[in-house]
Amino acid sequence: MENNYNAELAIFKKKIKQMGTYKGKHTELITLYVPFGTDRSTVMNQLNEEINQSSNIKSPTNRKNVQGALRKIIVFLKKINFALPKNGIVIFSGNVSAVEGRSNIKIFTITPPRDLNTKLYWCDSTFHLDPLKEMIVPNEFYALMTIDKNEATIALLSGRKYEILGHFTSMVPGKTKAGGQSSQRFERLREEAMQDFFKRCASKFDAYFIEKIPNLKGVIIGGPGMTKQYFIDKEAIHHELAKKIIGVV
């Protein structure tokens, strides 16, 4: 079951990436989110109304493309007799031709891996993918960081699988055997470089996880020696993420 889910998720990610490559010359790409259980007549009436409204589009080419895309969606929904997948369906349609003035109206569908709760009609120069991208984030996961003075790695752990999100190296110089003021100055520069590295790592960690806190089960910080605890004591990461620290290893 896990292998099947991972395979479906990989296909799902690939389709989202593909949809993101299409750019309309005008506002002519249509996205329709239809959750399971949506009333058929409501959707079909809306699509027909959009065809009527599109008659006001000034550009003949743009008007033709929008109406063509809407009709393709209507034909598709009639073809499947509005039998929606249990997770709902997202339909994309529009002119995907890369040649100015030439129409190539296509229709694509994506069945989400989780229940679709968003009902949406969107007409723009790009397909609307944000609600689908949110589904890529696992329901529950752990945030991992290993860190020392020279390098750091940030990863996401979901179930028994992990994904490395970033690996960073520092410019912190090694220790010196020089004495006197030169040694003190060198140590001060070394400390400043380490602080900058910690700030950079914390900023990356926040960027990866701050918006995913609702699904975050815990944060684990690891690494050799006392560096990891020193990093934690500096309170560099966002305080909401710091509250989630469940292990220092």
SSE map:
Elements: H1 2-19, E1 29-34, H2 40-53, H3 60-79, E2 89-95, E3 105-110, E4 120-124, H4 130-134, E5 141-147, E6 151-158, E7 161-169, H5 180-209, E8 216-222, H6 227-233, H7 239-242, E9 245-248
Parallel strand pairs: 5-8, 8-9
Antiparallel strand pairs: 1-2, 1-4, 2-3, 5-6, 6-7
Helix pairs in contact: 2-3
* Strands ordered across the widest β-sheet: 7-6-5-8-9
Structural class assignment: alpha+beta
* Major beta-sheet overview: 5 strands, mixed
Spell the H/E element sequence: HEHHEEEHEEEHEHHE
Describe this structure in words.
This protein has 249 residues and is of the alpha+beta class. Helices cover 39% and strands 24% of the residues. The protein is built from 7 helices and 9 strands; from the N terminus they run αβααβββαβββαβααβ. It has a 5-stranded mixed sheet with strand order 7-6-5-8-9. The chain has a 4-stranded antiparallel sheet with strand order 3-2-1-4, with helices on both faces. α2 (40-53) packs antiparallel against α3 (60-79). It is elongated, with a radius of gyration of 26 Å. The mean pLDDT is 89.
Features of this protein?
249 residues; 39% helix; 24% strand; alpha+beta
Task: Please outline what is shown here.
With 249 residues, this protein is α+β, with helices and mostly antiparallel strands. It is built from 7 helices and 9 strands. It has helices at residues 2-19, 40-53, 60-79, 130-134, 180-209, 227-233, 239-242, and strands at residues 29-34, 89-95, 105-110, 120-124, 141-147, 151-158, 161-169, 216-222, 245-248.
